[in-house]
Design a protein that fits this description.
Helix content is 43%, strand content 16%. The protein has 16 helices and 14 strands. Strands 1-11-10-9-12-13 form a 6-stranded parallel sheet, sandwiched between helices. Strands 6-5-4-7-8 form a 5-stranded parallel sheet, with helices on both faces. It has a 3-stranded antiparallel sheet with strand order 2-3-14, with no helix packed on it.
C-alpha cells in the first residue's frame, strides 16, 4: 500500500530519500500570478473586489452589506447545535486554553552594576485576523481550526480578534462555527474566503479593518497570499500538506499504525505518511491493514493517492538509527509506537509535535487534549515550531541608562561607532559627556 520502500542504515542512505521528499516540497508557482492580481485588486478596490470574487466563487447574490456577519446571528446559532456537541466544544476549548496559559511570558527587568536598567517588555499584537476554511462548502465546519488559532491569541492578550471564512451559497456560515465563536466570545466575523480574504485583512477595506497578524490554514491560494504578504503583516507560518511519521518497534500494532497513517492520508493527496520501523514484518502487516481500512473510508480516493504518491516505509536496524532518520525528515506529527517512548524522548531533535505511545494518536492533539495543532510541515520543524501564545506577542527591548553610566562607558561606545564610520553616532554620545 505504501508507494515507496526504503532501507535506511546510515546517513549514506539519506540522499535518495531527501531527493524524493524534495519533490513533494516543490512549490506550485502557477498560482502566484493570479494571487498577485487578487492582492492588487483588493488593495486598490477594497470591498468592491471582495464582493466581486465572492460572487464569482462562493455566493452569486453577495453584496457589500453581507461582508460583516450580524453578531446577533452568532448567539442565535446555539439553538441550532446539539447540546452534547456544545459541551464537547466547551471542554475542548477549556483544555486548549489551560495548555496555552502555561506558555504565557512575563516582562522582565535587570539592573546593571553601573546604574543602567535593561529589560524586555512582552506585549501582544493589537489586532489579529483568523482565517477559517469553508470546509466542503460549509458542510464540515473546521471547529478545531478556530479553537487552535483563537485561544492562543486570547491568552496572549490580543485586544481585537476577527474571523474570516467563506460564506455558503445562502450567505451564511455553518452554525457549529458560529457557536464556537460564541463560546470563545468572538463577535467580529467577515464572510469572505481565499486570497481576497487574506488581502482584506492585510490591507483593510471599507468594511474590514486591517490586522497586524494573520493565522489560520487554507488552500494554496491562501498560503500563497500569506507568503506574498510577509513583511507587510505578520503570519503564523507557511504551511504545506499534512504529514505523519510513525516510529515503531516490535510492540507496534499494525491496526493502530494503519489507522493513524490514514488519519493524515485522508486530508490531502499530497499528505505525507511515513512508517519507520525495525520490524520488516510490521511493514507488511501495516500495508495489509491499510488496504482493509482504506476501503471503509469516505475519502478513500484521497487516502489511496496520498499513500501511493507520498507514503513510504523505512526499515532501520535499530531505534537510534530510526531517530536519526526522523530528525532528518522533521515530521509535522511524530508518533512513537514504542515499548518505552519516554526513555527515547531525548533523541528527538526535530518534530512539530510528538505523540507518546500507542494510546496517544495524533487526533487527540488535533482536537482535544490542549497542545496546538497548527504545526510546521515540509521539514520546517528543523527551525520552527507550533503556533503558540508567543506567536501573537512581541518582545520590546527596554534600556534606561544614567549620567554616571554614560561617563564611564561613553568613550568606548563612541570609539566603536567611529570604527564603523558612523560619526554622528559617536557625537550623540559625546554631546552628553560635556554637559
Amino acid at each position: 500500500m505504501f508507494g515507496k520502500h526504503f532501507t535506511y542504515t546510515s546517513k549514506n542512505d539519506w540522499p535518495p530519500i531527501k531527493s524524493w521528499l524534495l519533490t513533494r516540497m516543490k512549490p506550485d508557482l502557477s498560482v502566484e500570478g493570479p494571487v498577485r492580481e487578487i492582492l492588487d485588486k483588493v488593495m486598490t478596490q477594497g470591498d468592491r473586489a471582495v464582493v466581486e470574487y465572492t460572487r464569482q466563487f462562493d455566493c452569486q447574490d453577495f453584496e457589500v452589506q453581507d461582508i460583516r456577519l450580524d453578531k446577533k446571528l452568532i448567539g442565535q446559532s446555539l439553538s441550532l447545535v446539539d447540546q452534547q456537541d456544545l459541551d464537547i466544544i466547551k471542554e475542548a476549548a477549556l483544555r486548549i486554553r489551560k495548555f496555552h496559559e502555561h506558555q504565557a511570558q512575563k516582562s522582565w527587568f535587570i539592573p546593571d552594576d553601573d546604574g543602567a536598567i535593561m529589560g524586555q517588555m512582552v506585549t501582544p499584537v493589537f489586532r489579529a485576523g483568523l482565517y477559517v476554511p469553508g470546509g466542503q462548502g460549509g458542510e464540515t465546519p473546521l471547529i478545531s481550526s478556530l479553537l487552535m488559532n483563537a485561544i492562543p491569541a486570547q491568552v496572549a492578550g490580543v485586544e481585537s480578534i476577527c474571523v474570516v471564512s467563506p460564506p455558503r451559497k445562502d450567505k451564511t456560515l455553518n452554525p457549529y462555527l458560529l457557536a464556537t465563536a460564541h463560546i470563545l466570545g468572538i463577535e467580529e466575523i467577515y464572510l469572505c474566503g481565499s486570497a481576497w480574504a487574506v488581502a482584506a485583512m492585510a490591507y483593510g477595506t471599507e468594511t474590514v479593518p486591517h490586522v497586524d497578524f494573520i493565522a489560520g490554514p487554507g488552500n494554496i491560494f491562501v498560503t500563497t497570499a500569506k507568503k506574498m504578504l510577509v513583511g507587510q503583516v505578520g503570519i503564523d507560518m507557511i504551511a504545506g500538506p499534512s504529514e505523519v511519521a510513525v516510529l515503531a518497534d516490535q510492540t507496534g500494532k499494525p491496526e493502530f499504525i494503519a489507522a493513524d497513517i490514514l488519519s493524515q492520508a485522508e486530508h490531502d493527496p499530497l499528505a505525507g505518511t511515513y512508517l519507520i520501523t525495525t520490524q520488516e514484518d510490521l511493514i507488511k502487516e501495516t500495508a495489509r491493514e491499510l488496504e482493509k481500512q482504506t476501503a471503509r473510508l469516505a475519502r478513500a480516493d484521497i487516502a489511496q493517492k496520498a499513500l501511493k504518491d507520498w507514503g513510504a516505509s523505512f526499515l532501520v536496524p535499530d531505534l537510534e538509527t530510526g531517530f536519526e532518520l526522523s530528525n532528518s525528515i522533521a515530521p509535522e506529527h511524530f508518533e512513537l509506537c514504542l515499548k518505552d517512548p519516554w526513555s527515547c524522548l531525548g533523541m528527538i531533535r526535530n518534530a512539530g509535535a510528538v505523540f507518546m505511545g500507542e494510546f496517544s494518536p495524533e487526533p487527540v492533539g488535533d482536537y482535544f487534549a490542549g497542545p496546538n495543532h497548527v504545526l510546521p510541515t515540509l521539514t520546517t520543524a528543523r527551525f520552527s515550531q507550533a503556533l503558540s501564545v508567543q506567536s501573537f506577542q512581541k518582545n520590546i527591548s527596554i534600556l534606561s541608562a544614567n549620567q554616571d553610566y554614560l561617563h564611564k562607558h561613553g568613550p568606548k561606545i563612541a570609539r566603536m561607532a567611529r570604527l564603523e564610520g558612523l560619526e554622528a553616532h559617536a557625537r550623540s554620545i559625546e554631546e552628553r559627556l560635556h554637559r
